[in-house]
Amino acid sequence: MASSPCGNSNFDSGLEIKTRSVEQTLIPLVSQITTLINHKDKPKKSERTLAAIHRVGQAVSVAVGRFVAVGEAIAAENQELKDEMGQACFEARRAGDAIAQLTDVGPALPLQSDGRVTVFSDRTGMVKAARLLLSSVTKVLVLADRIVIKQIITSRNKVLVTLDHLERVSTFQEFVQIFSQFGNEMVEFAHLTGDRQNDLKDEKKKARMAAARAVLEKCTMMLLTASKTCLRHPDCESARINKDAVFHRMRCALEQVIEIVTEARSSGENKILPASIYNGIKDFKSSVECLRENLFSLSPQSMSSQLETLVERTEDFTDSAYTSHEQRQAILGLCQLARQDTQQLVHAWVEGQSAHAKEATEDMEVAILKTCQSVNDLRRELHKVAVGRASDLLKVHGEQLPLRALKAAGAEGNLEAVAEFTRTLTEQKEQLVETCRLLCHVSGSEPLEITCVHAEETFHVIGPQIISAAQTLALHPSSKIAKENLEVFCEAWESQLCDMALLLREINDVFEGRRGDKRPYLSLPRPGKHSANLKTAKAVKLDAEEQTSIAKLGLELRLLSSDVDTEVEKWEEQEHEIVRQSQSLASMAYNMHLFTRGEGLLKTTLDLFHQAEVLSEEGLQLCSSLRTFSTQLVDEEKSAVMTEMEKLVALCQQLQMGAKTPVQGKTATFQKVESSIQTTRNLLSVVLSLLPVCNKLNRKYKSERSSLGSPQEWRERQDSSTPVKEDNNKSSNGFGVKSLEQHMAGLNLLESK
Q1: In the predicted model, what is the mean pLDDT of residues 651-660?
Q2: What whole-number percentage of the chain has pLDDT above 90?
Q3: Which segments carry the region annotation Disordered (predicted)?
């Protein structure tokens, strides 16, 4: 019973839990109901235990009552869900009342000689009521979750309408006005989709959402400059092609977000995850190892066919013009070795079947080990080739020579030179696209495969867009807008190269057995960031003297981020929100440390300030998680956590304000850099002080969920969670799950001894 809601994620109602918020909301309820059912197995109970059971039953009933009130308020605001939500609320209330009645011990019963009371309880009734309660509460939560999906769809529709208006504008004045509206709508869409991305349980959907949001982030600035260029040069064909490509890509990304949240099946979904060699090897090894248990689990022909399919996929490596002769020969040799070992396995296998062996023979066991080893060697060689090529390309393209040449040729109005460097860039694009495809084969996880596909598509699309932007500048070399537009597309290319370096590190982490599940930190446009009538702030690189003066601060950041990682590793629940968000903060702080040394992905002060802004947003997300976590704590514990959390909020806001404040001049820029790093250091210090405290409290309350406690403790916990009326008044915000979570948090009062 305890595992059904969160383990199988399916209930009697046939509903599936797809988000962490719904799952986490149900955990305390599952825990307490399980405890009640387990106690029903024991007919003899002490008076103290009976009183505690009575309290649990009454508390469940009261908490469900509050929860149902929120569900009914949501139903009143959303007529399309009124009937379903009303029925689910009715069933939840009825089940809560039934549990209260079943745990009501009534008047004092005669004591036995051992001081215990014999209670002939209705365990079947309790199980039935518990099933009904869990099923109905889950249905209420999933229905409320539909409201969140509806909000995302509504927000997307508003963005699409404004996007259509933007595409048709004919004057700068009209464009500036509509783009301002578009920016506000994108901010709303960004927040909704960001929350949804973090809430998804399915890592593949998370990765697809991250990819779509990354496209929207980069395309927003491209849309601004491409549209301005088209308005300034309305008869320029290359400017129109450039603009049309941006609008098309934004619409595709918006559609992909909706496909993810509504689980719609698109015609192109099968292209999202091409068959990778990593998955082929994993499936082949699984089939081979199954023979240890069952010699008839598959036929020899199907195993040989499986291997040949796997070998065919290696042609992406061996047929590539960029694969060296030595690498090609090594891959072909390992493929041949895998064939030979498989043939030996098949031979031993057939002999074992003929001898009516019930399990793998000694010859088979040796052949199984050799076959698995040979495909592992093949995987290792392919990983080496793909990662090696990607590393070499990143080094070569780090200097951005074709981009610089294109910008210079365009500014000179030299169409012939633009055509020449276009060929160079196209060749680089093809190399990068092919390398992303090879990385996809060896990525080691489906979310990383999705990220590889996204990188491949991004290089494939941005390459031609840079070329059309360069052609426009060459035709209008004195145009400042055309020059700015080309700069924006070149920056998007450079940004994707940085993302590819991160991806490469994650693939290596997975291959070497380290955690490779850290997601890129995405931040969609924020208010004022892409104002249509403001020039982009100038990016600055620190000189040697400035880097030396902030080296000490950077070292402190490195030590703090390392300490945070150490504290995080002590948590048993590595998927806990507090853990994941603290890891993100530590990783971003480490990036800032590398900046102080002139290394890493943050190349300019603009990169640093952008990272600081994203870090502050992640810090505020951590504050939200801490606030939710504190609802299960008693007064003194809660006060300690909330005090530190308030410090964290203040530092996040300070960092955010500082990062957004514009400055002029070298001295002011350096002071802003120094201030951002100091604030990040202070922020990380607070996180470091919170982690061990929260870990200790989390372990404490986790261990207490499985047992019932004294009446005094129940009373204290109940008193500490009394102020719910105020929250009830706020339940009409229509946001669904978040409102319900606040009220279901009241169930945590059932988690003390």
Answers
A1: 89
A2: 33
A3: 702-740
Q: What is the pTM of this model?
A: 0.63
Q: Please give the Cα distance from 77 to 98 (Å, whole number).
A: 29
Secondary element (H or E) of residue 225: helix 203-232
Contacts of 325 (CB under 8 A, 6+ apart): none
d(CA 186, CA 250): 11
Mean pLDDT check: name the lowest of 94-103, 220-229, 382-391, 708-717: 708-717
DSSP labels, 408-449: HHHHHT-HHHHHHHHHHHHHHHHHHHHHHHHHHHH--SHHHH
DSSP at 79: G
Distance (Å, whole) CA 409 – CA 87: 69
Gap between the Cα atoms of 27 and 9, Å rounded: 12
Using CA atoms, how far apart are residues 421 and 424, in angstroms rounded to an integer? 5
CA proximity to 55, closest of 574, 656, 716, 611 = 716
Calculate the alpha carbon distances from 138 to 3, 131, 155, 198, 202 in Å. 14, 11, 26, 20, 18
What sign has the CA pseudo-torsion 559, 564, 567, 569?
Answer: negative
Binned at pLDDT 50, 70 and 90, residue 228 comes out as very high
CA distance 498 to 514: 21
pLDDT level of residue 292 (50, 70, 90 thresholds): confident
> Is the model's pLDDT at 734 over the cut of 70?
no
Interacting residues of 587 by C-beta distance below 8 A, sequence separation 6+: 518, 521, 561
pLDDT tens-place string over residues 404-433: 999 999 999 999 999 999 999 999 999 999
Distant-in-sequence, close-in-space partners of 353: CB < 8 Å, separation ≥ 6: 295, 296
- Report the distance separating Cα 441 and Cα 331, nearest Å: 14
CB atoms within 10 A of CB 679: 22
CB atoms within 10 A of CB 533: 8
Rounded Cα–Cα distance for residues 136 and 88 (Å): 5
Q: Residue 139's pLDDT is what?
A: 81
pLDDT for position 125: 75
Nearest one of 525, 659, 529, 524 to 605, comparing CA atoms: 659
| Residue that the structure tokens 């339940």 belong to | 731
How far is residue 43's CA from residue 39's CA, in Å, rounded to a whole number?
8
Query: What whole-number distance in Å separates Cα of residue 668 and Cα of residue 628?
Result: 39
Residue pointed to by tokens 């999705």? 450
CA distances 168 to 176, 233, 244, 551, Å, are 13, 15, 11, 51
Q: Angle CA(5)–CA(8)–CA(10) in degrees, nearest 5?
A: 65
Residue 24 near residue 744 (C-beta atoms within 8 A): no
Tell whether the model's pLDDT for residue 568 goes beyond 90: no
Average pLDDT over residues 196-207: 86
pLDDT of residue 230: 94
Neighbour tally for 106: CB within 10 Å: 8
SS3 label, residue 56 = helix
Bridge partners, 118 (sequence order): 44
Mean residue pLDDT across the chain:
78
Handedness of CA 529, 533, 539, 545 (dihedral sign): negative
- Token look-up 């092609």 returns 241
pLDDT, position 530:
31
Cα–Cα nearest to 683, from 708, 712, 658, 717? 658
